[in-house]
């Protein structure tokens, strides 16, 4: 058993009550969040992080992003739908249902291409539809046109989905908002009759195929409409066409205040009508300002989890990025980590939380849960602007023992497209006495847009560490500015139609040769450091220069961000990263719009929000403890054995632990597993759905097994299994950049081109991040339009490889008032005489702005060339391809001292 060690300075421990002084102001000024773990509020529902059109095409978002975010419900386009160019429910259902997906909702009206549907007018009988494929002729046939649409959509789900019973049909979307039935006084009877007709038609189709009852959701109003809801429920009860899920939308800032009252009114209405409670899904919630912002998201999630209802983030930007809660092709922003934390509560029971005030806009709120199996208590909180005092009670000593360990992690706003690394541990408390089962924990919340995760476990047999990797951050407006302006960004202005800036301010007008932002920072040692800028490149890639002590400028390269509307331009922020050498001591980092002070760099007029500096000298080792992993089937964290308390117990064919690890860049990482075995054992490691490595220990003991794995930039899903069993303490990833020499980089312009494939040269003034200033376009849209890479050293053997593709895709189809109708382009890779694979490549905002997406492939020949293309549609434009063995060398296992 370890010694009692308090690793956070300034902590006092008295009679079982722990207090950590806040960094800003006395405890009396803090917001108090009280949690009673002895008072259960029910089984964790986990449905609040659903998403509207959050899925584009297969692989957009990637499976790692989907699984890690723990999405249980989504609304997608119906089969044959033309409202969006991507997101057909049938095409994305495999990825959605892969691990956590439960309910696939479809908007049947998405058959129509326009918003509002069918010009906003209820269709009549002017068409005759072909039920096999949804095509039509312009002549009446005595059947209401929309009823024919409903039939072939339901038929498609019934006959082509592998999970038709897990679908929920939404016949009408926002019928009160200009979609056919806005005039309730004049159109009520029409809507009620149409509801009954569509309801019965869907049931008829399912019964035709022996599928039983089809679930139907509605009415789907733009907001809580008590009069309409009363009329609909009364009619539906009388006619036996009650919805299986009752739906309305909660949009706007003030809804954080009124949401609970709307739900209470709905439940009261059910009672008045003698209707048993119907499950509720708020299929659109939140505003632009909430997406990707953990301190905002947690306020909404806490309401829905309290009420045990489901909800789906509103669709404000474009399809396929979890409603602005993911970044780049495969990366996490801060919103994704908030989703992940929320999903980590699966298997728990939620417990009572008392915030300073309920039903208050932009205030401290929280979610708490206790997992009895893994003996883990969790608090998620955020949204307040003051320091936070947590009053934790009801921690049962029968479960947690006499002492507990506490870790506090933080996620801060990184912008909709900005990358957020694995949430750092900012505070640890080791071996805290539970004499009275209560703890008071004061945490300095410096940013109301941040969210925090507090994990409490029985005392573990590992050393808790806060701030394991040195990092520092500064708001851009707090730096020394020249020829630039700091702007206030009110989070409540414009009715929430804006993306938020960290700290409520950002820096703009950064468009003159003299523009610069200077930050003086002291680093602890000589080494290499990653400098990250969170900022907005408005629709085009751009560049800045980073000077260190007025010398040695490095180019900071930005990719384009969304800028199709005035609301998005400048506010839709991403991130850029560059690695620089620094000596120990104080340095002035100067980010400038010009290299020479005379000529601005291409597209340097970029908003600046925040700077972060991180020590990456040792490969930025990142620890994922067993207590933070997800477990499947009977796997769990155990505290039953001395010296391995807090280890994950994994044994047999079915048990599994899942880790979602973050890589700042594509390349090789040493992935290490610390564990104990009772005899000879092995660990089967799966990375992003592919079995990659088997680690072995020859006998009983404490071991560290390490495999050098190729990880994709962003989130990687690592699954851990052991047939003979292990007790896993932790997983650690360490970047090994030098090993990237084993990968082979091929510029697209240097490949063998076939058919129409042609090289594009990007002028220097474009600010493009294309390697060498060139890319390859017109690939695909015909079987002959391909490019070919002959096999060569580095990938001339059969085996598992990653093909990292740098690509651009700015294709749009159709129009919408505020949603860019993006196309996910498909790229196929075929090994001549061997394997094939493909990937869908999401939107990159500009044709000269390149992101990276990895296609895993297992090659089966030694000499078969790799051919890239797409016979049916255009592939993305290609900058370069990096081919890397999935594993380097043989995994190693060494004994470790416990």
UniProtKB/TrEMBL annotation:
It comes from the Bacteria. Residues 472-614, 744-884 form the CBM6 domain. The keyword Translocase does not apply. Keywords: Signal. Residues 1-24 form the signal peptide. Gene3D superfamilies: Galactose-binding domain-like, Glycosidases. This is CBM6 domain-containing protein.
């Amino acid at each position: 058993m370890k010694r009692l060690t308090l690793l956070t300075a300034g902590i006092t421990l008295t009679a079982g009550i722990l207090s950590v002084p806040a960094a800003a102001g006395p405890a009396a000024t803090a917001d108090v969040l009280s949690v009673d773990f002895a008072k259960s509020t029910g089984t964790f529902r986990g449905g609040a992080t659903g998403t509207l059109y959050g899925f584009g095409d297969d692989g957009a978002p990637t499976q790692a992003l989907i699984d890690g975010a723990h999405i249980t419900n989504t609304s997608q386009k119906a089969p044959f739908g033309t409202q969006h160019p991507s997101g057909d429910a049938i095409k994305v259902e495999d990825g959605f249902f892969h691990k956590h997906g439960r309910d696939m909702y479809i908007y049947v009206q998405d058959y129509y291409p326009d918003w509002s549907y069918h010009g906003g007018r209820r269709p009549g009988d002017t068409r005759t539809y072909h039920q096999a494929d949804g095509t039509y002729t312009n002549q009446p046939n005595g059947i209401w046109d929309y009823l024919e649409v409903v039939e072939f959509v339901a038929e498609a789900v019934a006959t082509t989905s592998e999970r038709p019973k897990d679908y929920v049909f939404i016949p009408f979307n926002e019928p009160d908002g200009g979609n056919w039935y806005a005039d309730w006084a004049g159109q009520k009877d029409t809507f009620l009759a149409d509801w009954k007709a569509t309801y019965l038609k869907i049931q008829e189709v399912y019964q035709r195929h022996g599928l039983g009852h089809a679930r139907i959701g509605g009415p789907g109003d733009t907001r809580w409409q008590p009069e309409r809801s009363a009329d609909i429920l009364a009619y539906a009860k009388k006619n036996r066409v009650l919805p299986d899920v009752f739906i309305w939308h909660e949009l706007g800032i003030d809804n954080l205040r009124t949401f609970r009252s709307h739900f209470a009114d709905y439940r009261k209405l059910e009672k008045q009508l003698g209707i048993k409670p119907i499950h509720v899904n708020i299929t659109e919630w939140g505003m632009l300002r909430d997406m990707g912002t953990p301190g905002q998201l947690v306020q909404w999630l806490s309401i829905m989890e309290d009420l045990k209802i489901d909800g789906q983030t509103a669709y404000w930007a474009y399809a396929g990025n979890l409603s602005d809660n993911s970044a780049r092709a495969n990366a996490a922003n801060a919103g994704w980590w908030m989703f992940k934390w929320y999903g980590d509560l699966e298997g728990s029971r939620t417990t009572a939380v008392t915030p300073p005030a309920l039903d208050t806009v932009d205030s401290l709120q929280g979610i708490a849960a206790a997992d009895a199996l893994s003996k883990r208590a969790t608090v998620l909180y955020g949204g307040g602007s003051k320091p936070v005092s947590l009053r934790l009670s009801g921690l049962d000593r029968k479960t947690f023992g006499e002492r507990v360990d506490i870790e506090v992690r933080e996620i801060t706003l990184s912008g909709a497209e900005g990358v957020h690394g694995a949430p750092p541990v900012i505070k640890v408390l080791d071996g805290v006495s539970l004499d009275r089962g209560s703890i008071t924990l004061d945490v300095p919340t410096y940013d109301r847009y941040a969210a925090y995760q507090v994990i409490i476990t029985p005392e573990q047999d590992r050393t808790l560490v806060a701030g394991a990797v040195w990092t520092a951050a500064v708001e851009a407006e707090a730096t020394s500015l020249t020829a630039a302006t700091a702007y206030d960004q009110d989070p409540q202005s414009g009715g929430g139609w804006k993306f938020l800036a960290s700290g409520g301010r950002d820096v703009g007008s950064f468009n003159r040769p003299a523009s610069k932002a200077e930050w003086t920072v002291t680093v602890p040692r000589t080494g290499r450091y990653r400098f990250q800028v969170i900022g907005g490149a408005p629709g085009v890639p751009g560049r800045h220069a980073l000077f260190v002590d007025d010398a040695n400028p490095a180019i900071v390269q930005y990719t384009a961000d969304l800028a199709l509307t005035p609301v998005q331009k400048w506010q839709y922020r991403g991130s850029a990263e560059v690695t620089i050498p620094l000596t120990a001591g104080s340095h002035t980092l100067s980010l400038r719009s010009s290299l020479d002070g005379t000529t601005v760099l291409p597209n340097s007029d970029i908003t600046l929000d925040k700077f972060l500096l991180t020590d990456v000298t040792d490969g930025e080792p990142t620890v994922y403890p067993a207590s933070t992993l997800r477990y499947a089937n009977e796997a769990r964290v155990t505290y039953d054995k001395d010296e391995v308390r807090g280890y994950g117990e994994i044994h047999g064919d079915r048990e599994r632990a899942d880790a979602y690890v973050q890589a700042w860049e594509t390349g090789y990482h040493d992935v290490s597993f610390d564990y104990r075995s009772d005899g000879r054992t092995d660990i089967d490691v799966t990375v992003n759905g592919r079995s990659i490595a088997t680690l072995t220990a020859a006998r009983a003991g404490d071991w560290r097994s390490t495999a050098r794995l190729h990880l994709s930039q962003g989130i990687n899903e690592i699954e851990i299994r052991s047939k003979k069993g292990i007790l896993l303490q932790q997983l650690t990833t360490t970047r090994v950049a030098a090993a990237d020499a084993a990968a082979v980089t091929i510029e697209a312009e240097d490949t063998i081109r076939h058919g129409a494939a042609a090289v594009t040269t990007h002028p220097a003034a474009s600010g493009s991040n294309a390697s060498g200033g060139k890319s390859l376009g017109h690939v695909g849209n015909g079987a002959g339009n391909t490019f070919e890479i002959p096999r060569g050293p580095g990938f001339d053997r059969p085996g598992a490889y990653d093909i990292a593709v740098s690509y651009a895709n700015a294709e749009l189809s159709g129009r919408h008032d505020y949603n860019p109708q993006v196309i996910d382009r498909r790229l196929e890779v075929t090994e001549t005489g061997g394997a094939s694979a493909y990937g869908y490549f999401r939107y990159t905002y500009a044709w000269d702005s390149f992101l990276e997406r990895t296609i895993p492939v297992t090659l089966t020949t030694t000499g078969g060339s790799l051919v890239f293309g797409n016979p049916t549609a255009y592939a993305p434009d290609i900058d370069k391809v990096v081919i890397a063995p999935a594993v380097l060398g043989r995994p190693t296992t060494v004994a470790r001292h416990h």
